[in-house]
Amino acid sequence: MQHINKSIWYKQPAKEWNEALPVGNGRLGGMIFGGIHQERVQLNEDSVWYGGPRDRNNPDALEHLPQIRKLLADGRLKKAENLAALTFTGTPETQRHYEPLGDLLINMEHKETETSNYSRELDLDHAVTKVQYTIGDVTFNRETFTSYPDQVMVIRFTASESNSISFRTLLDRGNARNYDELEAISNHSLIMRGETGGKDGIVFRSAIKATAENGSVKTLGNHLIVENADAVTLILSAATSYRYEDPEQQCLKTIEKVSAKTYQELLQHHIEDYQKLFNRVILNLGDDNEENADLATDQRLELVKEGKEDLSLISTYFQFGRYLLISSSRPNSLPATLQGIWNEKMLPPWDSKFTININAQMNYWPAEICNLSECHDPLFEHIEKIKKNGKKTAKSMYGCRGFTAHHNTDIWGDTAPQDIYMPATIWPMGAAWLCLHLWEHFEFTRNEKFLKNSYDTLKEAALFFVDFLVENEEGLLITTPSVSPENTYILPNGEKGTLCEGPSMDSQIIFALFTSLIDASEILDVDQAFRQQLLKLREKLPKPKIGRHGQLQEWLEDYDEEEPGHRHISHLFALYPGKQISPSTTPELAGAAKVTLERRLQSGGGHTGWSRAWIINMWARLEEGELAYQHILQLLKSSTLPNLFDNHPPFQIDGNFGGTVGIAELLLQSHTGELHLLPALPNEWSSGQVKGLKARGGFEVDLSWEKGELTEGVIHSLNGEKCAVLFNNERKEFETTAGHTYPLVFNHES
Q1: How far apart are CA 496 and CA 260, in angstroms?
Q2: Calpha distance 19→421 (Å, rounded)
Q3: Where does the record place the Glycosyl hydrolase family 95 N-terminal domain (predicted)?
Q4: Beta strand pairing status for 675-677 and 723-727?
Q5: Which of 309, 589, 607, 627 has a CA that sits 20 to 30 A from residue 569's CA?
């Protein structure tokens, strides 16, 4: 068995998809079921999407914008919403959807059926899944990984006795209904050909090659057949027309290149590449709980559900989140979707695309603090696609400069509104929120070259609001029309509405966007006139307001909400991931944020996995370690599937990523300009250590603590910026030199 924190393992094969184990290299993914007689590896390639790019911008939007604004200003909600449903929704109403690549099906020819000593494991240290079992006197092993350097999936079969391995295998997609051809192209290789439907649908290819040590390999029909081998290596590649002129040639070229290497070399390359990222962060919550060592992961999860403590499961969950980000988002891949890259359905929930009114952003919350900056790259590349389309949407729908996007986007960077769902559809803030990730990346890395390259994108996102904002009677600059995702408010006369003017979240996002640009233009010493303009506009944005219940207002007016336990807590954006509200800088607003959270939770909030994960981060920012810890337990108890995937329900990966960053935020925060060490340490985590978390300003932090007291703290300065550190209300400031390490000494008061 692996180190208890770095392994997820089971004593039985997966009965269904939510029990299978994920592997991935950013672009190519698989779910390993670990069957004994029949193995299924469900396959994904990140660019297998239905249909090509389209212009879905509603041609009647701009003409009706003044009328919709007037109806909202006059409080005629129903009329405004009815008109908006016709003129402001996309034509057609939905974007493109993600599809599976298919399945690799392997039928093992075992002579007997009696099986013993079964185990299946995902080794997080090496990013390899392992299946092992004994039949008769022979022990069989299967190892699977997807390599980023070699861009293939590799499956290795070995056995304790020679000539024991025989199987038939083929590729499939929807029981042979969703591909065009499966052909044997040599006596050891197969290729699957097809294209997704719709106009300009994407052409996909997947090829597989078997290499046997002793024994024989042949093809019959469209099956690949291995007989009596000592060991076998299967190599699978996939490519699509989204990236390649000739995906088939690309597939075969990749396999050819990889075939020249031994299994050991492929494995070694893969592990070295993966560990460069994975090994940067170590987390230990004083939890090497030996009595749990022989309990499988699903058994441990059951015990947590029964109220047992298992701190090492929390460290495992944290590292599993980092593993998932490395596996679903690497340079040159697409960003992680609602399901990372792992999706088995031809029509997945919410199309398994990029939902940008929180979910896609949450996927990337751990990227910087958890020391995986490179995994952020695919999102930045995708923002450029959105920018191109978003300029068109800004101009044609709103008559504005700059660019905008609504609450979803797809592989083509579509920016027109998605669905006809009033609580979410008409919300022009998606691009602005995404662009804050560019600033966040700069804050952690302090890479000025990156900032210089991103400046135009940030500026274009802000420019949209320079034109879009409208001054209301109070002299405030507001967004209209918009919504507070995805909530419904009630007017004093009992009328319900979703479309509105100036929801709190919008002002908070624009405040953060304008602030990042003001800072960026100062750092780069450019664009002074624009900076002055933004400073003036920022002054006139609505400030966060406290309502009659002592809560933070979700809307410009202090309306009641239809669903007090709503899963979205949009108006607390300023607390997390924003930084406009914090206990040290705005204690009164932090108090109101606390009331808001309590009110949501009393009414059953946090019932979806990602919503619970967001709540962990908000309690962390309010420095309420105990409450955050209770929600970490709740996330495991009520929103975690047997394979540790997050459950919305159904499976959605954002909760994994939100939970991972929440654990980090309890140990280190840096959003107020200082490195706050152990800002919200739960009592249960009285001893532990963490190494390699990143902080804004270009620092890496190692901490050890015992009985809740810091015993060791080391700051690594990556850029030589000035460092301010806070622990237990004791503040230190010191100059640093890039590449140097600074041990911290604190006075321990009894």
Answers
A1: 66
A2: 33
A3: 8-243
A4: parallel
A5: 309
pLDDT recorded at residue 113 = 80
pLDDT (0 to 100) of residue 294: 85
- Look at residue 286 in the predicted model and tell me its pLDDT: 75
Nearest one of 625, 629, 627, 631 to 607, comparing CA atoms: 631
Q: Can you tell me the distance from the alpha carbon of 749 to that of 426, in angstroms, rounded to the nearest whole number?
A: 54
Q: Which residues have a Cβ under 8 Å from the Cβ of 215 and sit 6 or more positions away?
A: 163, 165, 166, 226, 227, 228, 229, 230, 232
* C-alpha angle 622-626-630 in degrees, rounded to nearest 5: 110
| Domain end marker among 246, 265, 283 | 283
Residue 376 domain flag: no
* Per-residue pLDDT tens digits for 417-452: 999 999 999 999 999 999 999 999 999 999 999 999
What is the rounded CA–CA span in Å between residue 77 and residue 68?
9
What pLDDT is attached to residue 1? 35
- Model pLDDT, residue 564: 86
Residue 123 is assigned to a structural domain of this protein: yes
> What is the number of structural domains in the chain?
2
C-alpha span between 657 and 654 (Å, rounded): 5
The full DSSP string for 622-657 is TT-HHHHHHHHHHHHHHSB-TTS-BBSSSB-THHHH
Instruction: Tell whether 593 is covered by a domain.
Output: no
pLDDT, tens digit, for every residue of 357-379?
999 999 999 999 999 999 999 99
pLDDT computed for residue 493 by the predictor: 87
The number of residues in the chain equals 750
- 707 residue type, one letter: K
In terms of Cα–Cα distance, which of 300, 25, 337, 332 is closest to 154?
25
Q: Residue 384 to residues 378, 438, 490: CA-CA distances in angstroms?
A: 10, 11, 38
Beta-bridge partner residues of 385: none
- Of 283, 317, 350, the last residue of a domain is 283
Q: How many CA atoms lie within 13 A of 381 on its CB side?
A: 15
Expressed in angstroms, the distance from the first to the final Cα of the chain is: 42
In a domain, 613, yes or no: no
For residue 721, give its domain range: 688-744
d(CA 266, CA 126): 13
